Amino acid sequence: GTDAAAFLQQQLTADINAITIGQPQLAAWCTPKGTVRVIFELTRHADNDFTARFPQDLAAKILPKLKMFVLRQNVVFTSLGTDIVSHEQILKRMQAGIARISLATSEQWIAQMLNLDQLNAIGWKKGCYPGQEILARLYWRGGLKRRLFYTEVTENVAVGTPIHIPKANTNPAETPATHAGEVIECVPMPS
Questions:
Q1: Which residue in 98, 100, 116, 187 has the fewest CB atoms around it within 10 Å?
Q2: Interior CA angle at 144 toward 140 and 149, to 5°?
Q3: What number of CA atoms fall less than 13 Å from residue 97's CA on the CB side?
């Protein structure tokens, strides 16, 4: 619809007005508490024509909530179906440090914890959107204690599995390991 860009500018973290036609742009839709509901890969096709790619398992949760905020704006949502994403594409995205928020991980992390600030997915001067106050406070005052990291493991682990790091120069049987985070996504490495 004719209000698509204005609507997305009010709802998502990225500066929608700065997206050029044909250029993909990451953007998150956050809760008022600043936790990420979903990460979209937006592509602008015309002034008010966008494609938003996101994990299909979130569609039933995200689209009805997003539509609640349309109000009197001329915005139309159309499903284009499911993209087939290869194992190689998933691995490449993970190695680039781009998180995939799924139904199991939605609303658990603040945008900066997912490195969205480093991926230019947050517009700091664009104005208000859900969670903007929390993200801006963290940006301007600092204090971020957790970040997203890519690592390779020898076995497949489930999303949400805690990651522990043994303390240096201690007996692992006597000293508990330090909690370092959780698994957001895991795929087998190609042989």
A1: 187
A2: 130
A3: 14
- pTM comes to 0.88
Q: Which residue has the higher pLDDT, 138 or 165?
A: 138
Strand partners, 24: 43
29 closest CA partner among 3, 2, 1, 55: 55
CA atoms of 163 and 59, how far apart (whole Å): 29
User: What pLDDT score was predicted for residue 188?
Assistant: 79
Return the pLDDT at 172: 62
DSSP lists the bridge partners of residue 165 as 178
Q: Cα torsion at 177, 179, 181, 186 (round to 10°)? A: 30
Of residues 21 and 76, which shows the higher confidence score? 21
End-to-end Cα separation, the chain, in angstroms: 46
Tokens found for residue 169: 């120069």
In this structure, what token pair is assigned to residue 100? 């995939």
Residue with tokens 């994403």: 85
